[in-house]
Amino acid sequence: MGLPEGESAKAVVxxxxxxxxxxxxxxxxxxxxxxxxxPTALRNILYVFLNTGMRKAELENLEWSDVDFKRRKIKIQxxxxxxxxxxxxxxxxxxxxxxLLAKLMKENDTGLESDFVFxxxxxxxxxxxxxxxxxKIAPKAKIEGLTKLxxxxxxxxxxxxxxxxxxPTVQKLMGHSDIQTTMIYSHLAPDHLADAVEKLEFG
Length: 203
Known about the structure:
By secondary structure, the chain is mainly alpha-helical. The chain has a single domain, classed as Intergrase catalytic core (hpI Integrase, Chain A). It contains 9 helices and 3 strands; from the N terminus they run H-H-H-E-E-E-H-H-H-H-H-H. The protein has helices at 28-36, 40-52, 56-60, 95-110, 130-140, 150-162, 167-174, 179-182, 190-198; strands at 67-68, 73-76, 89-92. Strands 1-2-3 form a 3-stranded antiparallel β-sheet. Strand 1 (67-68) and strand 2 form a beta hairpin. Helix 2 crosses helix 6. It is globular. The model is unreliable at 7-19 (pLDDT under 50).
């Protein structure tokens, strides 16, 4: 079948093909070892990464005014000095994250009193080289191939999908502007998709 008259090959829209590698994520056992082998300050940061899926910049710029303890949500929102990559969103926090943040808030009230949840020693925005610390901790935790903080974000999304959370919901939690980005996790949900089809029984 040829092109309509007057059309050229240049008018053909190419299908987008995603040849990127499947994301590296940690197993629950690897997460446990990573946290156990991290010093307290780093452990707190890694724990929040794993349990919220925040981007590095989102965590570094997280202020106490962004934490809604009453509604149990973290608000990723615009500030005078920083703008979120893909707009504003809210992330529900689980009980473990709630307890940790409540503990850090209490410590903040009696100590540094910084606006930042994870401040530098002088109370300013964190300056620690988190990736370098992660790379150093990974071998101690016997975790191979862990060289990027973004892998912790992948871990959050991957385990959501493997626990049956639908991709549009994961997209919203992660702050992906395009569902195509979220689709890199679709291969992790074969059983969930099969279960969904089983619910359709006609005739």
